[in-house]
Specification:
Elements (H helix, E strand, L loop, with lengths): L3 E4 L10 H8 L3 E4 L8 H8 L4 E4 L6 H5 L6 E4 L9 H6 L3 E3 L6 H17 L1 H9 L15 E5 L3 H10 L5 E5 L5 H4 L4 E3 L2 H7 L2 E4 L11 H5 L6 E4 L8 H9 L5 E4 L17 E3 L8 H21 L4
Parallel strand pairs: 1-2, 1-3, 3-4, 4-5, 6-7, 6-9, 7-8, 9-10, 10-11, 11-12
């Protein structure tokens, strides 16, 4: 019998069989997520028992979970974020951890631009109205000439900035690490978070996971009433209840969220007409997903070979 692995991300292989074929051809014995959703810690612990490796989604792989599965040698994350994995515990336990930092970039960046345009031109609102038998023409706003604030100018943030170039926008960025080699030719100005919030017409978040919300009630209160908020990065970076309060009170014009603190999401934002919501689909473009899954499978096999399992 080959290496025993768990694929916890429930959509793995839907965009094409190449990554599954790669694993099977390497002799892996594959177990799938039977729940069709993100695993709880208890479920992950149960399913990881006697496994050599895991192709991981966003389930929490805590120290307790990792310590309870001594056979596990490799965690290959299907995605970029590693905030769901206790990296210190993995290192102590000799578990190799991989991710796919580039495969999702174009998908998330294009979705971000689509969401901004949708909210500013009220496209989804208009579609819902027609389907409800109403013929209304909402007055939207142009993106051209606006100020866009990018919180987190990493891989995705830079891709968003590049996509925005033809719209003639003013670009502000807030990031603890400044990359002037990118910023200068792309017309990006680094500023403090307060300045960005006060001046931006669109605030789009592309920061890694954090312990608390970057856009909490206090931060949202600094924004223009005409501004919109976008989060396609990590759930919890925007305080969803504070955002709902601001939108209900007319303190913000609209929002687009693809990620949520708890998924599936069913909170207050679902009742607001000026909010666009999608179910964490940033990387769900066929091209992105295939690249991501192939890289994930390749990373897993490399880790298993390095660990002497294959």
């Amino acid at each position: 019998m080959g290496a025993r692995i768990l694929i916890s991300t429930s959509s793995f292989g839907r965009s094409g069989r190449q990554p599954l074929d790669l694993l099977e051809q390497s002799g892996c014995d594959i177990a799938l997520n039977p729940h069709g959703r993100t695993l709880t810690s208890a479920e992950a612990q149960t399913l990881l028992a006697e496994k050599d490796g895991v192709i991981a989604g966003t389930e929490k792989l805590t120290r307790d979970v990792l310590a309870s599965v001594p056979r596990l040698k490799v965690v290959s994350r299907c995605g970029t974020g590693l905030d769901s994995v206790d990296l210190a515990a993995a290192k102590e336990l000799g578990i190799r951890v991989f991710n796919t930092p580039d495969a999702h970039v174009d998908g998330v960046a294009e979705l971000t631009l689509a969401g901004i345009l949708d909210v500013m031109r009220m496209i989804s609102q208009s579609d819902r109205a027609i389907r409800a038998g109403e013929w209304k023409k909402p007055m939207g706003r142009l993106l051209r000439g606006k100020t866009v604030g990018i919180v987190g100018l990493g891989r995705v943030g830079k891709a968003v900035a590049s996509l925005l170039q033809p719209f003639g926008v003013w670009l502000l960025a807030h990031d603890p690490r400044e990359d002037q080699a990118f910023a200068v030719p792309h017309g990006v100005s680094y500023v403090g978070l307060d300045v960005l919030l006060q001046e931006a017409d669109v605030v789009t978040v592309h920061a890694p996971g954090a312990k608390g919300a970057i856009l909490d009630a206090a931060a949202l209160s600094r924004m223009k009433p005409s501004a919109i908020v976008v989060n396609t990065a990590r759930g919890g970076l925007v305080d969803e209840d504070a955002l709902a309060d601001a939108l209900e009170q007319g303190a913000l014009a609209g929002a687009y969220l693809d990620v949520f603190a708890k998924e599936p999401y069913s909170g207050r934002l679902t009742a607001l007409p000026n909010v666009l919501l999608t179910p964490h689909i940033g990387a769900y473009a066929v091209e992105c997903r295939l690249r991501m899954e192939n890289e994930t499978a390749t990373n897993l096999l490399r880790g298993l070979r390095e660990a002497g399992v294959l």
